[in-house]
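User: I need a structural model of glutathione transferase from Colocasia esculenta for a docking pre-check later this week. Nothing fancy, just the predicted structure tokens so I can convert them on my end. Input:
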Amino acid sequence: MASGTASESAAELKLFGMWASSYTHRVQLALKLKGLEFEYVEEDLANKSPSLLLYNPVHKKVPVLLHAGRALAESVVILQYVDETWEQNPIMPRDPYERAVVRFWCHFCDDKLAPAVGTVFRSTGEEQKVAVGEVHRNLDLLERELREGHFMGRRFFGGDTVGLLDIVVGCGSYWLSVFEEVAEVKLVDPTTFPLFHSWLRDFEAQEAVREIIPPAGRLLEYARGIRHYLLSLAPSQHDAAAAAAAAPGDANDGGGTGAGVDGANVAASTGTGEEDKKDC
Ligand SMILES: N[C@@H](CCC(=O)N[C@@H](CS)C(=O)NCC(=O)O)C(=O)O
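Assistant: Understood. Predicted structure tokens for glutathione transferase:
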């Protein structure tokens, strides 16, 4: 296992990200929790830098972390690397079974919850109703885990402190309230999902998290622009954009509880949006 110290690596860490990207926030939060300093490079996703294309030639997405000149892509991969390299303030459990459970729910978040949230964001009418139902079913699964399953009785998924799964589910879950407002739906009813709701409030109240999540007003404005753009597309363009957004490993890779990012990915992939709609 590689090992590093905060001071030794500070000058050698560079993060390529995008301000509204929940995947970027995951890495920023993990680095902060570890007490690591890094250089941050903001990417324009409508006009990706040669560095981003060089360091992530497969997906061409942020985040990318450069450590001593070596590039890492995919947020969950990066989080695990960071935890294995800098052992202070661990974000993964030590026990192999516990570690596997964390990975399982990370996949659940990126493969099931996030795409459903993305569909709510970019649809209306019946399609949106179906997607809201899917989000609720997925939140119910998490609620059950918190109530009587693996995470029963824990303050955070990671135990008493924020762990890797909290980072993955939490960075992006703040989009849920943004989407509720922008798409005029109810996603996290505190009476239906009391444990998830209070977990999310607790997560958002953490100092490190507050320092990373952009102001709600900025996220709202951004999401409004993207949704407006998506809904303004002709049905044929919309289908193509939605298909691009749904393509695994492509524009909606993980979608999101970071689904605000999806819409933006669509805008970027169609290349027809206004400049500020192409960011992420
Ligand atoms: N699975 C990836 C998803 C990363 C992702 O979707 N990044 C978006 C920004 S939030 C991106 O770079 N999009 C640019 C594009 O799709 O061209 C991860 O976990 O890092």
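Before docking, keep this in mind: The CA atoms of residues 265 and 280 lie 5 Å apart.
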